[in-house]
Amino acid sequence: MTEQSQAQPRVEIYTKDDCPYCEKAKDLFDSKDVEYEEYNVTDDEELFEEMVERADGRKTAPEVFIDDELIGGWDDTSALEETGELDAKLGLADESSDDDEIVEHRPLIIAGTGIAGLTAAIYAGRANNDPLVIEGDEPGGQLTLTTDVANYPGFPEGIGGPELVNNMKEQARKFGANLKNGVIESVDDSTDPFRVELKNGDVYTADAVIAASGASARTLGIPGEDELMGYGLSTCATCDGAFFRGEDMLVVGGGDAAMEEATFLTKFADTVYIAHRREEFRAEDHWIDRVHEKVEDGEIEIMKNTELTEVHGSQEEGVDYVTLVENDEGHPTDRLDDPETDEFEFDVGAVFLAIGHTPNTGYLEDTGVEMDADGYLETQGGEGGGQTETDVPGLFGAGDVVDYHYQQAVTAAGMGSKAALDADEYLDDLERAESAGEIEAATADD
Ligand code: NDP
Q1: Across the strands, what pairs with 178?
Q2: Of 144-158, 278-292, 369-383, which gets the smallest average pLDDT?
Q3: 218 Cα–ligand 1 center, Å
Q4: Which residues fall within 8 angstroms of residue 104, CB to CB, at 6 or more apart?
Q5: Residue with CA closest to ligand 1 atom 38
Q6: What are the structural domains, with CATH classification, of the chain?
């Protein structure tokens, strides 16, 4: 499909330890057989300063350069990958983007390499359904952002998120799944087989599709957010926390992710502040207890009924301070006219948003698949409550694109396996119907 058409340009990647997005960036170049120089800035002040200077002041890893041109972090790199521009910069000719040329037909395409997609790939590979797995914007999914997965059965000592994902990728490949970098632009369910178009223009066809494309980190849409994302504002504490050693840090949110990130950040922060918009936390007791231990140790302070309304700072200097609003009744941004609402400025050197996720289902918008108001897929069907069938026969959903409630690695894995089994049954039925049709046609010809 792609081939090297000229000498490879020089690729440099600044990385740090425990940085899932750094791993994603390296995986992307590895998958293209592109060589790169890696500079790990962990505990190397001089190298870190060099990275910040070359990256126009951004204090986030990874930072990717191609022939000295700043490409940026993972988001910027994967955005270029989606449009095919990354291949152009790397001198990789893309022969497959000719208008309507179909790159390949597969019995099954799986969207996403999170826990749901990879489990589906393992099952589908074992069922000889020759799955092609499209990695999507966030290869490895949300678990690559988790340092320690303590509740996945079978690992009494816990396991690192990236390690669990990498093990599953290896297992999927072992059973014959192919993993491909790329992001699906659209699925056309008006054709038979389905037509699956990637953002770089590549078109595949498939008899069945499993949507396991997960959900992406939400942002607040407040002033300063766009400008300072990557410059002290982040949605990934494990990626960026270490860059703000000694600073006061703010975590926004009241779910498990906010509690986990706040606990993690105490390793680096002077004090971690958690701002949550109401009185009760949504997080599990386990996480709340851990946070309260840190509160007792003086490492975390909790600000309830408080919301972030603006982040102040500059790309050169990073986050300087934030504006917060507080009202004892909760949801203060809904009560800005209330005289009881207090607005105040607060000094912090870094801000981490942990306010949940939005499902990645835009590529299914033009299909007949039902979605709820937030974009989660509506599924039903399956024997014994399988719940992976959408309204479109042959199109299945699994993991966080469907499940906004449980959102656990183990439930995503369970659903991925169900989707692969349902898809296998669908493909078997299709094959039987096709061969019955062929026999009928042959008999009619006689
Ligand atoms: P959740 O949806 O559980 O929590 C999001 C939090 O952000 C809520 O407290 C919510 O407030 C708050 N929030 C949402 N929107 C806004 C906004 N606009 N302004 C201010 N606050 C906002 O998401 P998580 O990412 O925390 O967790 C998702 C799933 O992943 C859960 O099932 C969780 O159990 C799991 N998880 C498990 C972990 C573990 O055990 N290791 C770690 C991380 C996640 P409100 O409560 O008022 O709605």
Answers
A1: 132
A2: 144-158
A3: 10
A4: 132, 204, 205
A5: 256
A6: 11-89 (3.40.30.10), 102-216+357-438 (3.50.50.60), 225-353 (3.50.50.60)
